[in-house]
Automatic annotation (TrEMBL):
Protein name: DisA/LigA helix-hairpin-helix motif domain-containing protein
Record-linked Gene3D superfamilies: 5' to 3' exonuclease, C-terminal subdomain
InterPro entries assigned to the protein according to its UniProt record, in alphabetical order: RuvA_2-like
């Protein structure tokens, strides 16, 4: 297997590149200028995946520009699976002095908390860093719309989480998926001949699956079989005697 080369756009943060390099061979390049998203890596089947990284604030402030960028990437690289990584935490929040709701954007902060008998220890908390006047429903509706046209959406809390997700995505793309494999049963594609099933459904006809197939292969349907005489059936179908043919016709309702 050839070495996995993970490509990153020239304008992506150095911090993410440094984290990626701990696990992958990373090459910087002009991906966006070439019509690609921010990150790109090969898959086991010869295809390619790419990922665009956007912070929550970017999506809230300029959805039309992001929509145009996504459209261009889909159009220029239709053979590549496109992921959108949404970086940050957001939730709906009432706007001060208004009956409308906006969107609060949260970031992780290290805060001192009291625990263990009053000792102060640093602990990570999510605090509001910005409040957008854009409704949260508009934010989620935009992402849902992207998913419906084939863009896959992932959420991360910060750039460190983004780097970890990208490493996992690139590595898992090097082999066929195994998740839920033991639960994914192959779909039944066999469709039995209805005329054979009609023959087998006759009560006490004495006709088994193999003979039913022979009869249908020769006559085509149960209706055509019913038009024949026992002697004709015995002569036409190997393995079917006059007695068996008579019993079959009587089961169908023929008076022989």
């Amino acid at each position: 297997m050839s070495e996995l080369i993970f490509k990153i756009d020239e304008f992506e943060p150095d911090e993410i590149e440094d984290l990626l390099k701990q696990s992958l061979t990373v090459v910087r390049g002009q991906l966006n200028r070439g019509g690609w998203a921010d990150y790109m890596w090969p898959m086991y089947n010869g295809l390619v995946e790419q990922a665009e990284r956007k912070q929550v604030g970017e999506i809230l402030s300029d959805q039309p520009a992001i929509e145009e960028q996504i459209r261009r990437e889909l159009q220029e690289k239709p053979e590549a699976t496109l992921w959108l990584i949404v970086e940050g935490v957001a939730r709906s929040i009432p706007l001060p002095g208004s009956n409308r709701e906006g969107t609060a954007i949260y970031k992780a902060r290290m805060c001192n908390t009291y625990k263990n008998y009053g000792h102060r220890e640093p602990e990570e908390h999510f605090v509001v860093s910005h409040i957008s006047k854009q409704p949260y429903e508009r934010f989620t509706s935009f992402l849902t719309g992207l998913e419906r046209i084939g863009v896959r959406v992932k959420f991360t809390v910060d750039y460190e989480a983004t780097a970890k997700v990208l490493v996992q995505m690139a590595k898992s793309a090097q082999s066929p998926p195994t998740t839920l494999q033991r639960h994914n049963k192959p779909q039944i594609t066999f469709r039995p001949n209805p005329h054979v099933m009609n023959l087998l459904g006759l009560y006490k006809s004495g006709v088994g699956p193999e003979m039913a197939e022979k009869l249908v292969d020769f006559y085509g349907s149960l209706w055509h079989i019913a038009q024949m005489n026992p002697e004709d059936i015995a002569a036409d179908v190997p393995g079917m005697g006059v007695v068996s043919a008579t019993k079959l016709l009587e089961t169908i309702g023929r008076t022989v």
